[in-house]
Amino acid sequence: MTVNSAPLAALRSGAFRFALVLALVFALGSIALLWVVERQVGGYGLEATEVMLHAEARVLAGEYAQTGRDGLLKALRRHGEGAGENQFHYLLRDGQGRRLYGDIPAGQGQLGEATIRMSEADSGPVMMRQFGLRIGDGLVLVVATDFFDFDELRARLARFTMLSGAAITLFALIGGYGAGRLFLRRLDGVNRQVERIVAGDSAERLPAIGLAPEFDTLTRNLNHMLDHKDAAMEGLRQVSTAIAHDLRTPLMRLHQRLERLSGKTEEGDEAVEAAIGEVEDILSTFQALLRIGMIEGGVGRSRFRPVPLSEQLSRMAETYAPVAEDEGHRLIARIAPDLCVEGDAEMLAQLFTNLVENAIVHTPEGTTITVDLEAGAETVLARISDDGPGVDPEDYEKIFRRFYRGAASKGLPGTGLGLSLVAAIAEVHRAECRVMPGPGFALELTFRACPLSFS
């Protein structure tokens, strides 16, 4: 299966999910940074404001100590008029609570540090920090200032932090999407090569991914592993083929000699015929093993062409219907017309012949054998089934093993390689092969469809 490299597929990629996690981390980091900056700036602003208030109050208290009440009033007017931007607000209150000077309401001025709320002509209600102290003769001096500058600074820092966090998060998502697209495109090429290798093209090798040295090292190591595997498989295949060929030749000679002996001695005919049968079984087994080995080795793939499967199965059904009838069975064909698959016509004929012959040989008289062929969604479904005793569900996977014979097949002719050959042919055609639940026995094969016009 190849990786979907469509644009939306990048949103489901691991790279984009990793970028999503990074974006979330950036967002949380921005919020944490904003909280820390706000706390630091706010604390610094409060401390700086109180230092200024204390300094202004000490200066005015010094004026009072040196020049008395009149001097203090002159100093307050001078400071109030010189402040320009009204940095400070004042209140001088006598012992009876009457305001002698300043714009702070007499009822709001307090001794010590406090936060008060005042209304200003140009900005409306504002929060101010104030410091009040008693300076003698019952006089209370209060100095206050607002947080406007620090509030503005905090607001700007908050805006900058939020915008920076949003921009970093957005860049992380865009970067993750781009990395995901790039990664999927590279991975798609690797997966296509893997599909070819799995399908039997052992000469294919994985391309370099190229995203990072570690990925290229991984592909190099995988290619080395494939080289070693191919060398080992080729050696094993050559040895197996050589053994099969070497044994088949003397067996053929033995078969010919036994045939020549047949009929020459009356008492030996039965033994000779039995020996000939045994030799034929052994030759048949070797032939099947060689055939499976060749198919699994990818031999014949170069002959793949569009095969009109509807026509091929119809001919096979017509051929085997009399054979089935002779054995006491009934063969039914329900074949949809004009269905085509990509493959080797000879191999496919052997596959379906094996299945029909198995059904004829391994089911009791009166069994109905059915050959179905129908179109699926971009697929072609072939099903060979019968209403015989079927196979134990525990044997569904085992029946494709070489030389495996179920309890119902023991004692009957056969090598135990027929379904192994079916599985090998299905594999080389990339067809899904599965045993369907009973009653009876049914094997379903799903092929990829191809246009009949190409045949």
Q: In oligomeric terms, what are we looking at?
A: single chain
CA(first)-CA(last) distance: 26 Å
Biggest sheet overview: 5 strands, antiparallel
What overall form do the CA principal axes indicate? rod-shaped
Q: Average pLDDT across residues?
A: 79
What is the N-to-C succession of helices and strands? Answer: HEEEEEHHHEHEEHEEHEE
Poorly predicted runs:
none
Relative strand content: 15-25%
DSSP helix fraction: 40-55%
Number of strands: 12
Question: How would you describe what is shown here?
Answer:
- The chain has helices at 14-82, 148-198, 213-261, 269-296, 309-326, 345-361, 418-428, and strands at 89-93, 99-102, 112-120, 124-136, 139-146, 305-308, 330-335, 340-343, 368-375, 379-386, 432-436, 441-448.
- The protein has 7 helices and 12 strands.
- The model has no long low-confidence stretch (mean pLDDT 79).
- It is rod-shaped, with a radius of gyration of 47 Å.
- The two termini are 26 Å apart.
- The chain is α+β, with helices and mostly antiparallel strands and 455 residues long.
- Helix 1 (14-82) packs antiparallel against helix 2.
- It is 53% helix and 18% strand.
- The strands form 3 sheets. Strands 2-1-5-4-3 form a 5-stranded antiparallel sheet. Strands 7-9-10-12-11 form a 5-stranded mixed sheet. Strands 6-8 form a two-stranded antiparallel sheet.
